[in-house]
Amino acid sequence: MDTFKAKEFNLPNIDGISVSQIEEHLKLYKGYVTHSNKIVSQIEEWKKTDTDPYLISELRRRFGFEFDGMRSHEYYFGALEGGLNPINQESGLSKKITEQFGSFENAMSELKNVAMTRGSGWAIMYFDKEYGRIQIAWIDEHHLGHLSSLQIIIAIDMWEHAFMVDYLPSEKLKYIESYIKALNFKVVESWFDKAI
Ligand SMILES: [Fe+2]
To answer: How much distance in Å is there from the Cα of 78 to the middle of ligand 1?
Structure first.
């Protein structure tokens, strides 16, 4: 029996990100779920045999890549469900952003700058409960550089597969702006509220 189950996302039409782009991307998301399950079940199988422990440990090494690939995509697509909703000025997230960045625009500008980092990875806005502050970070691939125990608030997929149907690599800023514009901040605010 599978440990992880692919989520179904009820996504609206998105200005600047085509239906075919989203459909291709969802197929890739499901691949991360499949491979997370495959690693868990294969390790269990091998443990029952005399499989070389080296092979098992190398498979374990891949788990963070597949699992974080799965989970980050769930935040990515989850924040688009329900259609765009601007940030509520009275929300805890809005107040925290203003306190820390001066304005919503400044925070999004910082997030865009991080998203423009060269390479395949993710630009993630987290909330750090320990220090009561927002942290924006670049993650290489899916799993290299995640900040331990911080809650994901916004996750922008910056692998080329996320935008290549619609944009050339040199146009990726347009994709980033389209994604941010499409966010349902009711969902994003709920993740922030959960974190505090
Ligand atoms: Fe992706």
So the answer is: 13
